[in-house]
Give the backbone structure.
Amino acid sequence: MTEEEFKKELEFNDKLVKKEKMSVEEQYKDFAEFIAKSKIRVKKEQNDGKK
Amino acid sequence: MGKNKPYYIAIDSDVLRALAFADILLKNKTDFRTVKNSAIRNYGGYLRKLLGYMHEDKLRIIILNNVYQENKHSQSLVDFIVENCHVANITFDNYEKISDEVKRMAKRYCSPYTDLKTGRVMEAPMQMVYDAYLRANKPTNDAMNMAEASVIGVPFVTLNAKDYVFNPHSNKEVNERAIGILQINIQEGYYFEDDYGRYVAPKPFSLATFGALLQNIDNKTLSISEVPAEDVIRAKHIKEEIDKGVYDVKRTLR
């Protein structure tokens, strides 16, 4: 992929992102769906939040 | 962190894009000096170093919700994320709880806070912006990213080289906002005890600062977010008094 192609892909991405209107909760639900469907690695060892 | 345990950091969209493009260039054996991209030209050395540590599994990159949302329509970036990065354990069962806590912490960064050493009320380290869609003020994306990094318990690395980032070589004034974020994290209980019994708390760094600190990644003394134990004690004391409704700013001055 060339620099120009990468730049165009980012511009296309940014246009679509701008059009999207989701609340923070809806975004997190969408993110949870992505995590469940993709093979991305999950940080298992959580810091368990607060002290 | 020790030799066997990978170090986790969260990054902003600019760092993600720079890392993904640097990865493409390295795979194509393209000289960084031949591209126009300013992040590659300015931070090529650090990006190369970060990618090297990621491939050796010494460093793991956490993708935050906001960063995913800002880049999810680029196939190259999504591929890079899935192949090279990690996420926090966000599921259909816990996303609402995490979302509420991230919003609360982001708003906390946009409110005045009590300085742990002086007891003075300080200006908010981060800011709200007006959102025409919501017809209300909301924390900036930077504040949301920092809040999620804190809730997950990892430092936040950004390409933003000024404003709210921590720079150990700058004077106190320059670091005031980063210190504010750190103090709020301690006061809210977002600090942890590392494997060596030291307290650490999430803090924002610029890519350049973080890249320079990473030269000690193999060294057990790498503890870039260390918090003095006395700050933790003061924070607990203030929190207890606030909870009891007996907090007196003057008392913390002693």
In short: Helices of chain A lie at 3-19, 24-37.
